[in-house]
Each structure stands twice: as C-alpha cells, then as structure tokens.
C-alpha cells in the first residue's frame, strides 16, 4: 500500500472543501485569526499564531495518508471541519500533535477502513465519520470525553467498539445504521443514552447499561435487542409515543427487584424481567465459563471466562495499545501468531455460544464414516463447457418447476437451487449403470459422471466461508440398517465420500430416523429449513440428501431510512403493500423482453440479478423466453450505469416441489421405473428412485440475503411414480443468485406475491 505524502503540484489544486468554510473551526477552537491559506503536498492548511489546521485534502489522495506533525515550523494540531471528507484514502495516520478534530472531518470517505485517533483528543465531532461505509477499525483515545451527534452514523462495517470510561456524552444517532455492530462497551461515566444512539443496528443483541445511566431516551436501543442488563435502580426507559424501540417478544430485561421504574415499564408493555446479579449476568451473556481448566483457548486476559473482553484484549494488542496476558490462549487458531484472524475466529465462536449452539448434533443412526477414509482426489478446473452445462440444467429445472407452480390465473412464489439438485442427483448417478446411467448423465448436462464428479468437487472446495459471505454445502446418505434388503457397493460409498464429502449413516428407518434426518437438515441449513420428511415409507431403503445454505451481506447495504411502503401488483392483478427497498445500483442488465439490475454481495463472489418483464408481458410469457445462453449473456453483458436507482421489495418465503415428473421429462425415465439400474450402488439391483423432493427458503432484506435448499433422493425397492433512472420491481419478476466467477446460478426463482 502506498503512503501519500508528497504529490505533484497539479494534484494539490484538486481539493474537497473551500477555505471559507474552514475558518470558523480555527477561530472557535483557538480564538486566533488564521493567516492566508497555504498548500503543502496533498494538503491545504491555515496558519494561526502557534499552530496549523489542516483544512482540506486532495480528492485524488488514496492509499495510506500520513499527516505530518509539523508544517512551516509550526505543529499540526487541528483536523478541521470537512478536512478529509469524501477522501479516497484507505487509512489515515494522525500524528500525536493533533488535539482537535472538527465536525464531518472524515464524513463520506467510503474507502476508509482504519483510523487510530491519538491521545489528547477529547471530542469526536458531529458526523465526524458519518457514512464511512468501509470503516472497520477505530481506536479511541483514553482522553476522549464526548462523541458527537451522528458521529459514526452509517458506518455499516463497524463491528464493535470499546468506548473509554472518560466519555460522559454520546450524541444522538451516534451509532445508528451501523449494520454490523455486534458488540459495544459503554463507558462507566455515561449517564444518558441519547435518542436513536443504536437505532437500526440489526446485530447488536446484548447490551449492559453502565451503573450511572439513569435515562434511556426514545429509540436509543436497537430493535433487535435480546438481552438488556440494567444496573441502576433509578433508570428510566423513555416510552414517549411508545418509541423505546425494543420488542417485548424479543427482548428480556435483567434487573433487580429494586429497579422499580424498569419493573413498571416492563409491566406496562409486557416485557419479561428477570432478577440477576449484574456482574455475573454480564459475564454469562457475553461468554462461556469453564472453572475446571487453567488454560482456556480464547481466554486472553486469564480470568477463566471467554468473553468480549478477550476479544478487546486481542484488538488492543493488534492496534499496538495493549499487551496480552496469556499469548497462548490469545492464539485462538494455533498458527503461532496473534492477529486479526484470531479476532475473527474468536468472534464467530462467541456468536456461536451466545446462540446456545454449544453441542454438535447427536444422531440415533450409526455413523459409518470411520469405515471410509476420504482419499485424495483431483478436481477439474471450471471451464466454459461445464459452466454452460450447469446453466442449461439450472434454466431447465427452473422452467419446468415454474410450469408446476403456475396456472392460468394464479402462481406460487418459486425458488429452486439447481446446485443442490445437481449435487444430490450426481451422487445418485454414481450408483447407476446401463441406460439408467446414460439417461441421468444426459439430464445432468451431458458429461460423463467421472468428469462431473471432478468439476463439482472443485466447485464445492472453492466456496467462500466468511462472516459476510458463505455458501455451505453438505451431503449425506442414510441407508436402512437391514443388509438383507440393501447392501451398498463399497466403491459407490468411497466415491461419494471422496468427491462429495458425504456422511454415511445406517438407521432403523423409524421415527428416530425421521428426527435424525430433519435434525441434520436443520443443522446444515443454519436453521432455515427445519424438516423435509414426516414419515418413511416401508419400501424406502435409502435417502441421498444435499443441503445448501447461503448467507451473505450486500456489498453496499440498502439504507433502512430509504425503505418505504409501495404498491406491488401481484400475479393475479391484485395490489399489495410492499416494503420497498431503494439503493443506488452500479450495474444495469437487460434482454429483449426485460430490464433489471445486478447487486453484488460482500466480496464480489456472488451477486443477485433481477429481471422485470416489460410492460404488457406476463411473467409466464417472459419465463418461456428464457434460455441458458440468453441468461448467461444478459448477466455477462451487465453495464455500469451512474445515477441509477434500483428498488425491490423485501421478501421471504418457502417453496417445495416433488421433481419426479420434471426429471423424467428431462430424460431420466428409467431411474423412476422398474427398469432402473442401480447395480453400482447396491449389491442387489432391485431399487429405483421413488421421489426427488426439493425444498428451499429465501430471506431478502436491507442487509443481505439468506437462502437454503435441500434435495432428497428417496430410493425404494419398488420405484413409485408420483405426480434516478429508477427501476422498481413492483410486479412479478425473475431473479437468481449466481457465482460471478462462473456465471452459474446457485438459486433461481420468481416472485409473484409479496404477502
């Protein structure tokens, strides 16, 4: 990363704020009349009698900007109002000589991700870091006494903050719309939690109020708060117009019996209040205590608790402002280093135990995995032929499923994951032989199963798995524990283990197996799908199951303040009220019959593409025009557009389908008939596919998308055949979530209704 200190003179002339707007800050702060403005390197600055104020910085400055401690023989002590506003810098290094930072000093600097504020600063100005959407690391000095109004408003990637204990004032809306904020240490000196301080913070679920806090103003608390700990017996939560912003069906308040105001508030609005010792409760809700171990991985401060305090200790160490008491414990990932990766993994661990997911699932079925060790295999590099085949399969599955979901005058909201269907059927195809094998290979894209295994192995092994974007894939095989009826071919099991990492369970196929399978599905879809079967037919001898879970934040979130109620014209012509999200869009897409946009998820690996049929064209008519080649071309030929606003409704729904008929129409006839050949799967060739069941879930909101899918292949002894330019998505549309590296759709669906 480059450090910008001296640039060409031509660059010096491109500045982001006029001089007249900067004089007030110097005069108010120091009472000295500034001299004429000067220009040095990338800075414009003003001289007072005994100091320098930085008043502006070049808008062309990027990378790391290091502010000098001295100019013209005078110390640089002030960062003026707007000085670094809208800079392209990624990091700003401030010298120890700085003693004041003005209002809006860094506002709108969307590339800024790290700022260390030196000791001696006692105030963070109003709107100082407002809408610094990539700001992740901020170190506040112990000298700090106040944080201004909307100081960190809209810092959507700020995950947490330790506010020094000397801070006695936090301004209104100071941390509002900080979408990733999930922990916060409030200072001991704080007496009032101002209006809207944590409004629209969807991840801050647990908060302990300092002992001195006597008043919590309207909307100060996040509406997703689950646990609120109150230590002050005189504390009052302002319920003016019922705008306290927490929900009685979500939040539990912990307070002693002597907190009469809180008790009355809870009684008036239906909150559950539990008695607790404040110190022990604070630890209990923040971490996990193990009194039986002296050395606890993650316990960086050695207090035998794994809490947010340990996370803060590691953060301070990385920032160079603290030491680690127990380095071995702080090295959470055991790589011999204490760095940001330990912070990330420790935070994920804390989130897990806070959610009470401490135990791995235990199944009644017998785990046979130990009998089949995964062998080293080689994948195949993803190429155009594979991408084209997968997209063709995805479009075919979607269009055939759409035909099942729509009638002349009505339609369901549809969602399928062709990727999940492909995984489950590809595993099954490894057990097929003869005509059954060739038909299944043709239906799955036309390539030999040996090649398909290698491609899908590469695709699965290269999926992202981070806090902000993950695609998780899991496979399992459940076989009836009766060798007289079904005995698996060892080579089939080994192949599915090697290429699909499939777990293998022998089960009695009774109610315990129903519970086990549904539990496996719930665990591997992150709880989005909690079950797929309610009974097991006597004829069923095997289930091959794939589960996919997608959870990603938008690269640029929809601002909740821009979400508004609007009319959505449903498939049947009725008008519905939709929560319509609105955001600037970078990418415009269109084909001959529709217009739309692409919106990327964090990291850029996946994107959401939406296509709205032209006026006068029905959703059904548009779906008929979609081709694999056309969809790939539409996505690949996206055009960057400026001053382009996209609007789309928030939506969430579930969808399920039995795909037997669709797959037979795609050429897999024998697999569902008495002619099925699965001799490469079972010792006795007496089974066929009785059902392919697919279930999916999606949830799209301002922050991102969660989606999950499960595909179940039921194998039975007897095959049974079952039957500003603004583009607003205000009527039925088609959408997909696709891999930007391959343009292959992972999920594809259509929205016909919002209610």
Blueprint of the fold:
Blueprint: E1 3-4, H1 9-12, H2 23-30, E2 38-40, E3 43-47, E4 52-57, E5 62-66, E6 70-71, E7 74-79, E8 88-93, E9 100-101, E10 114-116, E11 123-124, E12 137-139, E13 146-147, E14 160-162, E15 169-170, E16 183-185, E17 192-193, E18 206-208, E19 215-216, E20 227-229, E21 236-237, E22 252-254, H3 260-269, E23 272-274, H4 278-286, E24 288-289, E25 305-306, H5 308-319, H6 327-330, H7 340-354, E26 366-367, H8 384-405, E27 414-416, H9 418-429, H10 434-443, H11 449-461, E28 469-480, H12 490-500, E29 503-507, H13 511-524, E30 540-553, E31 564-569, E32 575-584, E33 587-590, E34 594-600, E35 606-613, H14 619-625, H15 628-636, E36 639-640, E37 644-649, E38 651-658, H16 660-665, E39 688-700, E40 704-716, E41 725-728, E42 733-739, E43 744-751
């Amino acid at each position: 990363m480059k450090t910008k200190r001296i640039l060409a003179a031509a660059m010096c002339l491109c500045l982001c704020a006029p001089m007249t707007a900067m004089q007030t800050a110097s005069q108010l702060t120091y009472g000295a009349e500034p001299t004429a403005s000067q220009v040095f390197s990338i800075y414009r600055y003003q001289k007072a009698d005994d100091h320098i104020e930085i008043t502006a910085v070049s808008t062309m400055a990027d990378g790391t900007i290091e502010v000098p401690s001295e100019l013209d023989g005078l110390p640089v002590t002030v960062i003026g109002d707007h000085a670094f506003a809208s800079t392209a810098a990624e990091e700003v290094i401030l010298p120890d000589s700085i003693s004041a930072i003005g209002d809006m000093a860094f506002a709108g600097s969307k590339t800024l991700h790290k700022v260390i504020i030196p000791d001696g600063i006692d105030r963070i100005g109003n709107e100082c870091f407002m809408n610094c959407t990539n700001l992740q690391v901020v170190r506040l000095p112990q000298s700090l006494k106040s944080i201004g109004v909307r100081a960190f408003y809209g810092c959507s990637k700020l995950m947490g903050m330790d506010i020094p204990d000397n801070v006695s004032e936090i301004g209104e809306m100071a941390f509002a719309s900080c979408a990733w904020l999930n922990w916060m240490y409030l200072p001991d000196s704080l007496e009032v939690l101002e209006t809207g301080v944590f409004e629209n913070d969807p991840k801050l679920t647990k908060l302990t109020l300092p002992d001195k806090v006597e008043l919590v103003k309207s909307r100060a608390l996040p509406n997703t708060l689950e646990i609120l700990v109150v230590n002050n017996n005189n504390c009052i939560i302002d319920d003016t117009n019922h705008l306290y912003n927490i929900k009685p069906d979500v939040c539990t308040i912990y307070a002693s019996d002597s907190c009469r105001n809180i008790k009355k508030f809870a009684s008036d609005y239906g909150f559950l209040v539990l008695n607790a010792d404040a110190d022990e409760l604070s630890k209990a809700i923040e971490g996990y205590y193990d009194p039986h171990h002296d050395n606890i991985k993650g316990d960086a401060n050695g207090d035998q608790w794994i809490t947010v305090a340990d996370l803060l200790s590691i953060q301070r160490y990385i920032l160079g402002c603290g030491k680690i008491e127990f380095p071995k414990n702080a090295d959470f990932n055991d790589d011999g280093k204490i760095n940001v990766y330990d912070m990330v993994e420790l935070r994920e661990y804390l989130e897990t135990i806070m959610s009470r997911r401490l135990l791995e699932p235990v199944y009644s079925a017998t785990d046979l995995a130990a009998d089949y060790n995964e062998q080293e295999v080689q994948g195949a590099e993803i190429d155009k032929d594979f991408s084209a085949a997968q997209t063709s399969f995805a479009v075919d599955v979607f269009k055939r499923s759409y035909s099942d979901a729509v009638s002349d005058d009505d339609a369901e909201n549809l969602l399928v994951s062709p990727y999940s269907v492909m995984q489950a059927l590809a595993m099954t195809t490894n057990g097929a032989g003869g005509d059954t094998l060739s038909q299944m290979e043709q239906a799955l894209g036309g390539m030999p199963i040996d090649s398909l295994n290698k491609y899908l192995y590469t695709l699965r092994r290269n999926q992202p798995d981070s806090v902000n974007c993950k695609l998780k894939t899991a496979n399992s095989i459940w076989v009836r524990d009766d060798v007289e009826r079904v005995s698996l071919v060892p080579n089939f099991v080994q192949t599915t283990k090697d290429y699909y990492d499939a777990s293998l369970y022998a089960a009695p196929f009774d109610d315990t197996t129903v519970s086990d399978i549904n539990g496996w599905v719930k665990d591997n879809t992150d709880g989005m799908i909690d079950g797929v079967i309610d009974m097991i037919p006597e004829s069923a001898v095997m289930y091959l199951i794939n589960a996919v879970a997608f959870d990603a934040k938008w690269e640029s979130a929809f601002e909740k303040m821009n979400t508004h109620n609007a009319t959505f014209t449903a498939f049947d012509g009725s008008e519905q009220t939709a929560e319509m999200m609105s955001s600037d869009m970078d990418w415009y897409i269109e084909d001959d019959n529709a217009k739309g946009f692409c919106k990327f998820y964090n990291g850029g690996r996946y994107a959401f593409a939406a296509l709205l049929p032209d006026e006068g064209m029905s959703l059904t008519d548009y779906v008929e025009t979609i081709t694999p080649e056309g969809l790939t071309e539409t996505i690949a030929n996206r055009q960057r557009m400026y001053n382009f606003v996209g609007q789309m409704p928030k939506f969430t729904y579930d969808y399920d389908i039995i795909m037997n008929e669709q797959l037979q129409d795609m050429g897999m006839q024998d697999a569902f008939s008495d002619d099925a050949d699965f001799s490469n799967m079972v010792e006795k060739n007496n089974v066929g596919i009785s059902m392919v069941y697919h279930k999916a879930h999606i949830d799209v909101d301002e922050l991102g998308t969660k989606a999950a899918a499960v595909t179940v292949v039921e194998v039975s002894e007897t095959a049974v055949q079952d039957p500003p330019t603004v583009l607003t998505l205000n009527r039925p549309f088609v959408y997909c979530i696709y891999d930007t590296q391959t343009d292959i759709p992972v999920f594809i669906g259509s929205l016909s209704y919002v209610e």
